[in-house]
């Protein structure tokens, strides 16, 4: 599937060059832990594209990895910690249907939405798998997570993501989206863990939320300053004998949703045409047409979005190597799927200036950076 996904990304963006995808991350972590002198620190940087990281991490070796499809956080982070793709773990986006439900659920918040009254979902939204934290603990290596944003989440997604790790409480009381403040806080909290005396090595996994800032301001000067802070700290840790890696989940591209396309989506995402509200993830969205109306809704959406989207079925996604049509996928995704091909695409939040989810290189190519050891020793 990875080769097919690379080919599909190349057809849309034209420059895909990654030789591996996020499913290799647990293997890379395990290889580092087997040989690390003091332990391993992983910076999990949300929203960082490969091209920006390549220039921002000046003291690291950086190679591209391919994100998941959809290229969104819920899907990509779960793949990066389990090594399983969305057709197995079930996190096919941010908003989707639980099997058998008459509504859609926001995977992170747990909020549901439907047309009219509906019973609450009875089935799980995703299937958890062994995490890299559990694998580390099984070998006698303590695993710690730093990340004030994740610490405040509840629900099955964050539980599946962090299973096996000790979440270290953050002293911050108010969260900020300023990337420099986020980077500085992360460095402080990671260094507090690295400075603790231990008889054995450990795994420290630090979530760095740059994503919220990028959604509003893109990869601006403030963002680049945050990368310099992370790069300097990672170099210092590597000089002190720690193995240090960083990787991202997805990148972002400019968004400028067109009013007419937003209206067209809203007209079709309606009880007159669909059995429940649409779902998806930013620049990939889907509809749940009424039985027997799938082709009609697909044709109408294709006509309405024109060159600004590629409108496909789940079978088309499977044929293109994007998302295998497993029962897990079929139970969750809509029958009509739209992939953004321009900035005018009608994203769910028209207030954002940057968005992600689709197949462009800047969304799909993410960095794997290493300060110590050399990447060639740990990347298959």
Task: Set out the fold topology.
Blueprint: H1 2-13, H2 25-35, E1 39-46, H3 50-56, E2 61-66, H4 73-82, H5 86-89, E3 95-97, E4 104-106, E5 112-113, H6 132-138, E6 143-146, H7 148-151, H8 156-162, E7 166-167, H9 179-194, E8 202-209, H10 211-217, H11 221-239, E9 243-248, E10 253-254, H12 259-268, E11 274-281, E12 284-289, H13 294-305, E13 309-312, H14 314-319, H15 327-330, E14 336-340, E15 354-355, H16 361-364, E16 365-372
Parallel strand pairs: 1-8, 1-9, 6-7, 6-8
Antiparallel strand pairs: 2-16, 3-4, 4-5, 9-16, 10-15, 11-12, 12-14, 13-14
Helix pairs in contact: 4-8, 9-11, 12-13
Give a structural overview.
It is a single chain. By secondary structure, this protein is of the alpha/beta class. It is built from 16 helices and 16 strands. It has a 7-stranded mixed beta sheet, sandwiched between helices. It has a 4-stranded antiparallel beta sheet with strand order 11-12-14-13. The radius of gyration is 20 Å and the shape is globular. The protein starts with a helix and ends in an 8-residue tail after the last strand.
């Amino acid at each position: 599937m990875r080769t097919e996904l690379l080919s599909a990304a190349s057809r849309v963006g034209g420059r895909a060059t990654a030789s591996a995808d996020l499913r290799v991350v647990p293997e890379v972590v395990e290889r580092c832990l087997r040989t690390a002198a003091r332990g391993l620190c992983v910076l999990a940087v949300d929203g960082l594209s490969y091209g920006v990281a390549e220039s921002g991490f000046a003291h690291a070796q950086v190679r591209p990895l391919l994100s998941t499809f959809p290229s969104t956080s819920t899907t990509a982070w779960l793949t990066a910690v389990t090594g399983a793709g969305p057709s197995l773990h079930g996190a096919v986006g941010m908003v989707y249907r639980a099997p058998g439900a008459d509504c859609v659920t926001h995977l992170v918040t747990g909020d549901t939405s439907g047309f009219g009254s509906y019973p609450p979902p009875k089935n799980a939204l995703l299937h958890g798998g062994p995490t890299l934290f559990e694998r580390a603990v099984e070998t006698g290596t303590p695993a710690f997570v730093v990340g004030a944003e994740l610490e405040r989440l509840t629900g099955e997604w964050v539980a599946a993501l962090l299973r096996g790790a000790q979440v270290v409480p953050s002293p911050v009381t108010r969260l900020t989206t300023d990337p420099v403040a986020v980077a500085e806080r992360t460095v402080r909290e990671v260094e507090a863990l690295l400075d603790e005396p231990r008889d054995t090595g450990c795994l420290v996994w630090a979530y760095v939320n740059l994503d919220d800032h990028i959604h509003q301001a893109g990869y601006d000067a403030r963002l680049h300053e945050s990368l310099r802070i992370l790069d300097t700290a990672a170099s210092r840790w590597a000089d002190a004998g720690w193995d240090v890696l960083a990787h991202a989940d997805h990148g972002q591209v400019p968004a400028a949703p067109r009013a007419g396309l937003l209206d067209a989506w809203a007209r079709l995402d309606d009880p007159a045409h669909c059995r429940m509200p649409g779902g998806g993830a930013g620049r990939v969205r889907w509809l749940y047409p009424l039985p027997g109306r799938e082709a009609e809704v697909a044709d109408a959406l294709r006509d309405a979005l024109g060159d600004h989207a590629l409108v496909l079925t789940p079978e088309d996604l499977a044929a293109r190597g994007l998302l295998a049509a497993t029962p897990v996928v079929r139970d969750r995704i809509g029958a009509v799927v739209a992939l953004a091909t321009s900035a005018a695409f009608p994203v769910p939040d028209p207030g954002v200036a940057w968005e992600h989810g689709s197949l462009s290189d800047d969304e799909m190519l993410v960095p794997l950076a290493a300060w110590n050891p050399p990447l060639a020793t740990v990347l298959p």
